């Protein structure tokens, strides 16, 4: 279990002297910064809907279209099992995991804003290419540029939000990223629901509208201030002081400013942050933040449901409109859950949300597997009662994920790394996240075809393992100043044996 907390004003620190007030400037910068989540969310939501649209399948994947319409309303685990079709989705994430390392260099040297702007431009270009695609090659190229936008945005935005936020509200502020991700998913599902009726180019509208959040993120990246942490890191000390005063709403920022200067001095001594990340003193951050949590976030199975919700529901025998509407309902649960998490995570803490929601997710996965084992895959249409039960179970699963592994999977890694390795570590976080996102996206439909209902039991078992990981290895980080989180590991029952 987690060890003890951090004493205010630990060795060489001044956290007990920090002051802040709410300011409209702080609110504006955080909202704009969080727009990066809408890029990720819109793509998560739009991909599955587009790949289930008949017009899209006729133009690019006619074999899948014919297989789908052979038994349109019957249950069939393998209806959408096509590796080129899934490559349309997963290619974005393979691109993102490569681009995040370029983002790390830019974020460290030129600041968080620079990566946000580059990410927005790349995503905007990808949206334009996808909307005008004439062949599969153009689709994949567009996805690669979209992946660049995700790689830069997911690398910089969580850092931007965590560094702008005061310790007391860091959880809620950072979860603006998850909130806008959820909003993007929900909007994408709504867009797909209507464009599916626009023949034959509705799918082009869905893909092209990805340019809207990219444009908002580009504008925000140009007008918002750089974070004080990054300005200090770049040696722009006077500017850092002014931004800190403005974002905290007080002139009395000397204590926090001096801590930033001290942290920056330590960071400047680190010449190779990627190699430094593997030192023994950073082993907890490496195992928990850079490897464990970003991998586990994808192994919950939730993003598979988000990617392919319309496809899954059609495979389960729902009609085209019914499947899109059902996925819209479940993604609405994600948005509601993110609001719940934003409001309560700084009160109840990260560990309680991980563990309580993990138990609910396991129950939902078992329930779905049991029902599918008894009722699914016999070449018949599901009854309305069974269909409604599956939608409810997936709704509850997404509701649990949306207040735990969804937002906390980005929050916890962004707040546990010290400044000297923060940008490089965040790149590893995004890289690991995207590796598992791409693998799950690429393999899910094939696994659904071959494992059948067993895929949901597999996800349930993985959620149990990751819950034990949190229970024994993750200390509570709520309300701990970001530059003092390392002290948690020095007092943790397990990690203190390694880092001290």
Automatic annotation (TrEMBL):
InterPro entries: MFS_dom, MFS_STP/MST-like_plant, MFS_sugar_transport-like, MFS_trans_sf, STP/PLT_plant, Sugar/inositol_transpt, Sugar_transporter_CS. Residues 29-478 form the Major facilitator superfamily (MFS) profile domain. The chain crosses the membrane at residues 22-42, 84-107, 139-161, 173-195, 201-224, 286-313, 325-346, 353-373, 385-406, 427-447, 453-474. Its main location: membrane. GO terms for molecular function: monosaccharide transmembrane transporter activity; symporter activity. Belongs to the major facilitator superfamily. Sugar transporter (TC 2.A.1.1) family. This is Major facilitator superfamily (MFS) profile domain-containing protein. It comes from Crotalaria pallida.
């Amino acid at each position: 279990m987690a060890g003890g907390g951090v004493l205010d004003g630990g060795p060489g620190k001044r956290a007990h002297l920090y002051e802040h007030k709410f300011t409209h400037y702080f609110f504006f910068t955080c909202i704009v910064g969080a727009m990066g989540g809408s890029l990720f969310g819109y793509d998560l939501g739009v991909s599955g809907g587009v790949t289930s649209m008949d017009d899209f399948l006729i133009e690019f994947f006619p074999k899948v279209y014919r297989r789908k319409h052979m038994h349109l309303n019957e249950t069939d685990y393998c209806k959408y099992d096509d590796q080129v079709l899934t490559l349309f989705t997963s290619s974005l994430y393979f691109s993102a995991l490569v681009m995040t390392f370029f983002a790390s260099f830019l974020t460290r040297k030129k600041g968080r804003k620079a990566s946000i702007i580059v990410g927005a431009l790349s995503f905007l270009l990808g949206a334009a290419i996808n909307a005008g695609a004439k062949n599969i090659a153009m689709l994949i190229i567009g996805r690669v540029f979209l992946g660049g936008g995700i790689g830069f945005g997911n690398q910089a935005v969580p850092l931007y939000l965590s560094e702008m936020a005061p310790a007391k509200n860091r959880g809620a502020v950072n979860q603006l990223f998850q909130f806008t991700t959820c909003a993007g998913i929900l909007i994408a599902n709504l867009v797909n629901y209507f464009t599916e009726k626009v023949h034959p180019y509705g799918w082009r509208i869905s893909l092209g509208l990805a340019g809207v959040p990219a444009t908002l993120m580009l504008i925000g990246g140009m007008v918002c201030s750089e974070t004080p942490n990054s300005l200090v890191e770049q040696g722009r000390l006077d500017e850092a002081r002014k931004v800190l005063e403005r974002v905290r709403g007080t002139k009395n920022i000397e204590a926090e400013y001096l801590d930033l200067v001290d942290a920056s001095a330590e960071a400047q001594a680190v010449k190779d942050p990627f190699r430094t990340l593997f030192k023994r003193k950073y082993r907890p951050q490496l195992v928990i933040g850079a490897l464990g949590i970003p991998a586990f976030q994808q192994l919950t199975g939730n993003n598979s449901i988000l990617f392919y919700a319309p496809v899954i529901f059609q495979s389960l025998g729902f009609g085209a409109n019914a499947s899109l509407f059902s996925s819209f309902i479940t993604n609405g649960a994600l948005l509601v859950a993110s609001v719940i998490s934003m409001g309560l995570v700084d009160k109840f803490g990260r560990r309680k949300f991980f563990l309580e929601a993990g138990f609910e997710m396991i129950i939902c996965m078992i329930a779905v597997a049991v029902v599918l084992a008894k009722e699914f895959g016999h070449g018949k249409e599901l009854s309305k009662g069974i269909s409604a039960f599956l939608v409810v179970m997936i709704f509850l699963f997404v509701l649990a994920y949306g207040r735990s592994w969804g937002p906390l999977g980005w929050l916890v890694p962004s707040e546990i790394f010290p400044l000297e390795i923060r940008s490089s570590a965040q790149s590893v976080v995004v890289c690991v996240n995207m590796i598992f996102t791409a693998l799950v996206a690429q393999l899910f439909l094939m696994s659904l075809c071959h494992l059948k209902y067993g895929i949901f039991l597999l996800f349930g078992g993985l959620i149990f393992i990751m819950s034990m990981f949190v229970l024994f290895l993750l200390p509570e980080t709520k309300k701990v100043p970001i530059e003092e989180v390392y002290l948690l590991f020095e007092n943790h029952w397990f990690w203190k044996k390694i880092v001290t």
